[in-house]
Write a structure and sequence with these properties.
mainly alpha, ABC-2 family transporter protein
Amino acid sequence: MRSFLAFAAAAVRQQAGYRAEILSMVLGALIEVFARISIWKAVYGGQHAVAGITLPQMIAYAIIGATLLSSWDAALVVREIGAAIRTGQIANSLVRPASFPLTLFAENLGPRLFNFAVVCTPVIVVFSLIYGLLPPASVAHGLVFIGYLAVSTTLLLLISILFGLLSFWVFDAHSLEWFMRGFGALLSGGLVPLWFFPPVLAEAAHVLPFAWITYYPMAVYLGQLDLVSSLAYLAVGLCWIAVLVGLIAALWSGACRRIVVQGG
């Protein structure tokens, strides 16, 4: 645990040193959220609601969904793993006291939490002042949403690590990176909520772990799920975390064998 916290803290300190990058991230987030809100205002036109979802709800979805839930490009983790494999630096991970996947998780969790504080928060404040921001459907929904936020962040990191480890067999992290970015943006509900999906695609997306990154957290925040259903789906999200941890452990074990065999 101490090593985990050390890796996370070091990553935060490194991230905090790039002030120009932080500013560009804030500006980029402002532009992205503004674009999403503008698109939904155009889609709604003068209508009060579409598919039972009001425009203020979609504005809240755009503000929170594009900041707290999906503003961070997790596909960069896939690129990092691919680069480590290409350069041979991955072999150094075998002699570290902590496993490579755990180290990756810690090193990327720190910047993600830093991003919450210095990028997401000011962007949410700005657009809340301009457009207004619906509060959670209830205090209880707000508390459950915090749990979903933790699940969302964890799943986002685990899925990116899982895709990255596939580079040991695919040997083309670039294609995996783009596949994950597009697949995740679509099935997480980050771009278009699953409410507006065609029935067949919506049924599939609802049960995949991507839906717990953006769609389910926002459905809870907006009160589209009652508290009993919210807690049930939260438990399913935790089960997905356990499944992904198991898959990552299996992939890393297989990757270590490949490293040893190919390295002699």
